[in-house]
């Protein structure tokens, strides 16, 4: 079991909003993993908080509540920053020395303060950029926000890791946070469903207790904080339109509940609540609408349990935990077709995604009136979806992974003995050339699965791979590119630069067009092949790699970050297939070494990666030919059969690239030639089929290939020939 970590959470106001629910869930997850958790906040009220912070399960320390939350109803952001800075100073002065990991959310200004006084790792959870949550209706307001926005942007650079609550938030943040360095690892960690919601039943709370008249068969519900940005008025207008479309009998059977968090100390809550009540009166809906302020957990559960559908009206909501809670309770959701709901709601399967217009909401609501079985159908699908995608187990895995990332365990496993996998390449942009099949295809799949946005090239561009990538939760773009044409390569990088605002983090040079030529010329001497054989082997491969490296380096140097990987082979060291192949692979390795020297001061790494024997489509198609010609590899037929049966999968090299790209100390490896099996051994992973892969440097493996099986059995698997000795043995000096 891992040693217990001491972890602090710094949160501005520990109330009952979605952000607070996430922070509480994060603290609970870490505590269940055996860590010591302490929460710090500037405000905490026992009458307006979640049970875990009220009953003492999560210890809460309030610091700075004496500072004003506003000055004459204004300057709220400034006051929030001052309160957060004060809390950070007190925590740093009196508590920080005992913490190894500090979580900050909502107000990033805490990070540079904490950074000055502690060596603890800092994780920031970004719900959404605060600079985009405010209006600038006057010149004074615009001037007032300039320093606040700058501090928010600048302070993001002080994080050791940044989590986002959705891909939508991540994309927006990448555009607005100019100081968020590409070298800062980022990831998406979806909020989870509260475990208490999964099996809990509302106790002693009836609909009448909630203010809902009897006889209401169809109940729609809006559940949001009483804030103008939540667009709650759309629910009232839509409900009015729905009633107008119904017969008198049906009008009496439908009802709308407007519920949500309400803080009497926030002027906007009180003002907007009155605005909504007045709007309800003007639409003559008073008898058909019930307002519920700050419902208790039991009241909220009772309302959800009897709800026909949830109306979720915010536009471009950053994530939205409420739809998950509704779907968990088997309640379909009608939400705006934008922002986080695009990632949480399956349109026409767990609810409906519509335009943010009253008519669109009313049309979707009418479907539940006309077909009352729709509630059960979509509700069951919604619960299954949330349990699969947004369970507490998934969330806990993410929290455990971030702990493992900063404080790896000696045996590479977590508390349960199973290694958690965190999408460490979220936010990264990668290009894999020649990815329509084979190793390139496998690398693209692994990069996308790790969270990167992946561009792939091929002739033709492989649109099928896009669907495979999307099935793994990734993002992929296929681009036609003939790597023998410099103009095609330049257009490729121009398109990536335009789409990704000049960003490229990873280039994998894999394009190669010489496989069929090699197969046609097996056992032929070089003088028996036509001279154009050289171009068939090395034009798309070696020369294409160099041209791609030139354009990639220009982008990476500007961003002071990047990784370029040439896919090579041990044909660069030993004779394999023919001289043209060996010269090309040796040059790929030399390219990595020499380019790395010039790129080192720019924080851009350049490596050469040697896969072993790989079960690509072409290799598997030519198995008989390979066995017959096994002498080309210096092997007997039986040894070749054994090599084929233990071949690497096409995705194994992809797992290597993912781990290398995630390595914070990758510059220590720049310029080197790396074996895939050695990379796997160093980072502690196996092939996709959980099968370990032996390195070509393994003495045990080499003895077995030479049929010295008895001697091979006596040699430990970890005994390897040093790389320098392999080079020296082949040197002609």
TrEMBL record:
Its EC number is 2.4.1.132, 2.4.1.257. It catalyses: an alpha-D-Man-(1->3)-beta-D-Man-(1->4)-beta-D-GlcNAc-(1->4)-alpha-D-GlcNAc-diphospho-di-trans,poly-cis-dolichol + GDP-alpha-D-mannose = an alpha-D-Man-(1->3)-[alpha-D-Man-(1->6)]-beta-D-Man-(1->4)-beta-D-GlcNAc-(1->4)-alpha-D-GlcNAc-diphospho-di-trans,poly-cis-dolichol + GDP + H(+); a beta-D-Man-(1->4)-beta-D-GlcNAc-(1->4)-alpha-D-GlcNAc-diphospho-di-trans,poly-cis-dolichol + GDP-alpha-D-mannose = an alpha-D-Man-(1->3)-beta-D-Man-(1->4)-beta-D-GlcNAc-(1->4)-alpha-D-GlcNAc-diphospho-di-trans,poly-cis-dolichol + GDP + H(+). It is found in: Endoplasmic reticulum membrane. Residues 215-384 form the Glycosyl transferase family domain. InterPro entries: ALG2 (IPR027054), Glyco_trans_1 (IPR001296), Glyco_trans_4-like_N (IPR028098), NAD(P)-bd_dom_sf (IPR036291), SDR_fam (IPR002347). Pathway: Protein modification; protein glycosylation. It is an enzyme of class 2 (transferase). One of its GO terms (molecular function) is GDP-Man:Man(2)GlcNAc(2)-PP-Dol alpha-1,6-mannosyltransferase activity. Signal peptide: none annotated. It is a single-pass membrane protein. Mannosylates Man(2)GlcNAc(2)-dolichol diphosphate and Man(1)GlcNAc(2)-dolichol diphosphate to form Man(3)GlcNAc(2)-dolichol diphosphate. Belongs to the glycosyltransferase group 1 family. This is Alpha-1,3/1,6-mannosyltransferase ALG2.
């Amino acid at each position: 079991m891992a040693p217990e970590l001491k972890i602090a959470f710094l949160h501005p106001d520990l109330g009952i909003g979605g952000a607070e629910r996430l922070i509480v869930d994060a603290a609970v997850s870490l505590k269940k993993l055996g860590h010591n958790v302490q929460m710090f906040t500037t405000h905490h009220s026992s009458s307006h908080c979640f049970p875990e912070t009220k009953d003492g399960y999560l210890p809460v320390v309030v610091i700075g509540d004496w500072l004003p939350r506003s000055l004459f109803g204004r300057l709220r952001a400034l006051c929030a920053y001052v309160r957060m800075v004060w809390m950070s100073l007190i925590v740093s002065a009196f508590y920080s020395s005992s913490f190894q990991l500090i979580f900050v959310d909502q107000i990033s200004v805490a990070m540079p303060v904490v950074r000055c006084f502690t060596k603890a790792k800092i994780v920031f959870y970004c719900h959404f950029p605060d600079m985009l949550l405010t209006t600038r209706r006057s010149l004074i307001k615009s001037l007032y926000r300039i320093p606040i926005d700058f501090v928010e942007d600048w302070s993001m650079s002080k994080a050791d890791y940044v989590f986002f609550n959705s891909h939508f938030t991540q994309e927006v943040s990448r555009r607005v946070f100019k100081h968020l360095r590409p070298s800062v690892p980022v990831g998406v960690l979806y909020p989870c469903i509260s475990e208490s919601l999964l099996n809990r039943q509302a106790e002693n709370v009836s609909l009448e207790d909630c203010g809902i008249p009897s006889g209401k068969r169809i109940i729609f519900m809006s559940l949001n904080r009483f804030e103008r940005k939540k667009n709650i008025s759309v629910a009232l207008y839509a409900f009015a339109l729905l009633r107008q479309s119904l017969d008198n009998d049906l009008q009496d059977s439908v009802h709308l509940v407007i519920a949500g968090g309400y803080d009497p100390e926030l002027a906007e809550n009180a003002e907007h609540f009155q605005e909504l009540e007045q709007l309800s009166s003007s639409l003559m809906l008073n008898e058909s609408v019930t307002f519920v302020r700050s419902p208790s957990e039991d009241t909220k559960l009772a309302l959800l349990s009897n709800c026909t559908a949830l109306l979720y009206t915010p536009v471009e909501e950053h994530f939205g935990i409420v739809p998950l809670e509704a779907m968990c309770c088997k309640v379909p959701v009608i939400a705006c077709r934008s922002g986080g709901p695009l990632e949480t709601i399956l349109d026409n399967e767990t609810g409906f995604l519509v335009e943010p217009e009253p008519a669109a909401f009313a049309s979707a609501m009418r479907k539940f009136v006309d077909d009352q079985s729709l509630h059960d159908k979509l509700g069951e699908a919604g619960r299954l979806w949330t349990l699969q995608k947004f369970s507490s187990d998934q969330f806990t895995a993410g929290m455990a992974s971030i702990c493992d990332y900063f404080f790896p365990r000696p045996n590479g496993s977590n508390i349960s003995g199973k290694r958690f996998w965190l999408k460490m390449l979220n936010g990264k942009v990668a290009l894999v050339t020649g990815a329509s099949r084979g190793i390139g295809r496998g690398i693209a799949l692994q990069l996308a699965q790790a969270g990167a946005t992946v561009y792939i090239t091929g002739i033709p561009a492989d649109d099928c791979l896009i669907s495979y990538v999307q099935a793994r939760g990734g993002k992929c773009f296929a681009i036609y590119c003939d790597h023998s044409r410099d103009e095609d390569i330049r257009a490729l990088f121009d398109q990536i630069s335009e789409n990704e605002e000049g960003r490229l983090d990873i280039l994998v040079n894999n394009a190669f067009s010489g496989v069929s030529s090699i197969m046609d010329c097996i056992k032929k001497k070089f003088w028996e092949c036509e001279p154009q054989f050289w171009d068939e082997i090395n034009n798309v491969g070696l020369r294409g790699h160099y041209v791609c490296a030139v354009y990639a380096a220009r982008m990476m140097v500007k961003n002071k970050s990047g990784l370029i990987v040439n896919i090579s082979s041990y044909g660069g060291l030993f004779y394999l297939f023919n001289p043209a192949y060996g010269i090309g692979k040796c040059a790929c390795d030399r390219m990595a070494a020499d380019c790395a020297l010039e790129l080192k001061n720019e924080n851009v790494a350049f490596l050469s990666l040697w896969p072993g024997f790989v079960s690509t489509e072409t290799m598997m198609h030519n198995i008989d030919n390979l066995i017959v010609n096994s002498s080309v590899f210096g092997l007997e037929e039986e040894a070749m059969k054994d090599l084929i049966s233990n071949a690497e999968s096409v995705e194994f090299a992809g797992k290597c690239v993912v781990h290398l790209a995630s390595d914070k100390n990758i510059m220590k490896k720049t310029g080197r030639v790396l074996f895939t099996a050695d990379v796997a051994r160093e980072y502690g992973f196996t092939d996709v089929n959980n099968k370990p892969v032996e390195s070509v440097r393994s003495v045990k493996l080499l003895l077995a290939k030479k049929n010295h099986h008895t001697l091979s059995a006596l040699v430990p698997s970890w005994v390897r020939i040093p790389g320098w000795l392999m080079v020296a043995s082949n040197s002609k000096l």
